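Renewal narrative, Specific Aim 1. Our central claim is that a sequence can be written position by position from structural information alone. The example that follows is taken directly from our test logs and has not been curated for this report. It begins with the structure tokens describing the chain, in the order in which they were read.
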């Protein structure tokens, strides 16, 4: 297996991080990889905000948790076991949203091609992070902070812009769970 395929196959979502900071040049390399993703009309409809500040991290956590809980509410009826399991995690973990990651990268979509292009930039972040010995995780719940004006001001989020990710990046702590993957459904013609 070549290095690219190895990263694709071995990357897994990391949900526990060492507090050790990721050097800035490494984050820059990762963002450069994101910026090289394909995009509609080569529009590169993204910008990046890297959160390393502990106070802002905590503020985002406090803003996101109640919104995540509201979003999870329907699970109570449709899948009570899973709901209980997630709520238990919320009680046990100090940071059930950003998992203590030292860097949180917001990929902010800036124009009409963002919906199709930004997820590719996100994937490049996750694969390049893996290739550099780092863990990553796309945490959609971490984007539930847009009702907090102070946070959106920090992100300089403008009308019409949309958050993708954010993507956590950091040094993995402990073992990473590797969920089973179903075989692909393929039709050959
Ligand atoms: C769009 C998207 C949103 C996600 N949001 C979250 C999230 O909020 N919290 C979380 O722990 N994982 C989140 N994940 C990670 C998925 O749970 C994970 O990719 C999936 O379980 C497969 O595991 P793997 O990434 O290890 O292959 C998200 C992944 C994607 C692609």
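The sequence written for that structure reads:
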């Amino acid at each position: 297996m070549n290095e690219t395929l190895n990263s694709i196959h071995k990357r897994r979502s990391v949900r526990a991080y060492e507090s050790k900071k990721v050097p800035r040049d490494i984050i820059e390399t990762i963002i450069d990889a994101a910026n090289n993703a394909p995009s509609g009309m080569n529009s590169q409809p993204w910008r990046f905000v890297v959160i390393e500040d502990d106070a802002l991290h905590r503020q985002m956590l406090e803003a996101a948790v109640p919104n995540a809980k509201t979003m999870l509410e329907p699970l109570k009826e449709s899948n009570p076991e899973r709901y209980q399991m997630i709520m238990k995690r919320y009680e046990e973990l100090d940071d059930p949203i950003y998992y203590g990651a030292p860097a949180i990268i917001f990929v902010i979509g800036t124009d009409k091609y963002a919906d199709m292009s930004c997820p590719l930039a996100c994937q490049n972040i996750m694969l390049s992070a893996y290739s550099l010995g780092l863990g990553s995780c796309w945490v959609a719940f971490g984007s539930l902070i847009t009702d907090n004006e102070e946070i959106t001001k920090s992100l300089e989020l403008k009308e019409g812009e949309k958050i993708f990710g954010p993507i956590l990046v950091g040094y993995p702590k402990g073992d990473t769970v590797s969920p089973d993957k179903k075989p692909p459904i393929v039709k050959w013609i």
